[in-house]
TrEMBL record:
<dbReference type="InterPro" id="IPR013632">
    <property type="entry name" value="Rad51_C"/>
</dbReference>
<dbReference type="GO" id="GO:0003697">
    <property type="term" value="F:single-stranded DNA binding"/>
</dbReference>
<dbReference type="GO" id="GO:0042148">
    <property type="term" value="P:DNA strand invasion"/>
</dbReference>
<dbReference type="GO" id="GO:0000400">
    <property type="term" value="F:four-way junction DNA binding"/>
</dbReference>
<keyword id="KW-0539">Nucleus</keyword>
<protein>
    <recommendedName>
        <fullName>Rad51-like C-terminal domain-containing protein</fullName>
    </recommendedName>
</protein>
<dbReference type="GO" id="GO:0000724">
    <property type="term" value="P:double-strand break repair via homologous recombination"/>
</dbReference>
<dbReference type="GO" id="GO:0008094">
    <property type="term" value="F:ATP-dependent activity, acting on DNA"/>
</dbReference>
<feature type="domain" description="Rad51-like C-terminal">
    <location>
        <begin position="61"/>
        <end position="231"/>
    </location>
</feature>
<dbReference type="GO" id="GO:0005815">
    <property type="term" value="C:microtubule organizing center"/>
</dbReference>
<dbReference type="GO" id="GO:0007131">
    <property type="term" value="P:reciprocal meiotic recombination"/>
</dbReference>
<dbReference type="InterPro" id="IPR051988">
    <property type="entry name" value="HRR_RAD51_Paralog"/>
</dbReference>
<dbReference type="InterPro" id="IPR027417">
    <property type="entry name" value="P-loop_NTPase"/>
</dbReference>
<dbReference type="GO" id="GO:0005657">
    <property type="term" value="C:replication fork"/>
</dbReference>
<dbReference type="GO" id="GO:0033063">
    <property type="term" value="C:Rad51B-Rad51C-Rad51D-XRCC2 complex"/>
</dbReference>
<dbReference type="GO" id="GO:0000723">
    <property type="term" value="P:telomere maintenance"/>
</dbReference>
<dbReference type="Pfam" id="PF08423">
    <property type="entry name" value="Rad51"/>
</dbReference>
Amino acid sequence: MVQVDCEDASNCRRSSAGIRTMSRGPSTEARKPANAGELWVCPEDAQRLNDDTQQYHPCLLTRNKTIDSLLEGGIQYGLQLCISATDNSDSTLIGNLLISSHIQASQTAQVTVVDTNNTFDVRPLARVVERQSTPEKVHALLERVRIIRTFDFEGVGASLDKIKADIQSDSSHKHLLVFDGLSHGARVSLKNNAVQAQADLDTFFKALQALSTDYGVLSVLVEGFVQNRDIEANHECLFHATELQPFFSTNTAPSIDLHVHVHSTQSHKVLEVMASRHNGNSKKWVECEATELE
């Protein structure tokens, strides 16, 4: 497993954009995960929309009217959510909205982001937190977002073991677990050994389901990658005009409780509940202008 610790890395530096960067390279040594507060420098200008004194809602809301209307009140802790999109930025935005809402719901709320493709960018998350908080609180909020970077599926499994151990040692905090680009590592494994990779995926999702259920962890898969689909053989999207489908489906990841997919057009977004195991709102969808998701 490869993890990044910008605090200890000798080649870590601050870029002109205010982000600490380091060169990527393979390592066999596990390192302390970084957190978003270490990687981001707060700008001076931000608009206050609300504070972080609210108590936990039984379900987690995104604070976006369009998205929350589709989710019918939010997402219950203890479930597994997959967010996929034809445009990577859409799934990233929804993931960041959930992170921002979660860390502002309680002073002890914790988030762990497992970045499987070295593409998780703190800046979009920071902008979302800015809009929902005050400038002086942003850095402290981001300090509670831990980032673990892995570069293969084996590292993902090792990360999950560590996360479980951490939660077991302190189960009093509400946890949000985000896997950013999990399909990247899964695709590589499937190409090398499809049978073994599918077995590893099954084991991973069973372990993730147990962690979510036993400790009330909300687990979120943020997926931008979609692949060409065989419309006749596997039609999960509601709209036949869509020639793409998410990598994770009810066949490859049957334990996912809720799957939200975002279709993009030039001026509009269509959010669709592709699968829902509990509230029965599968195939529900909403349409909005592209700017409404910002």
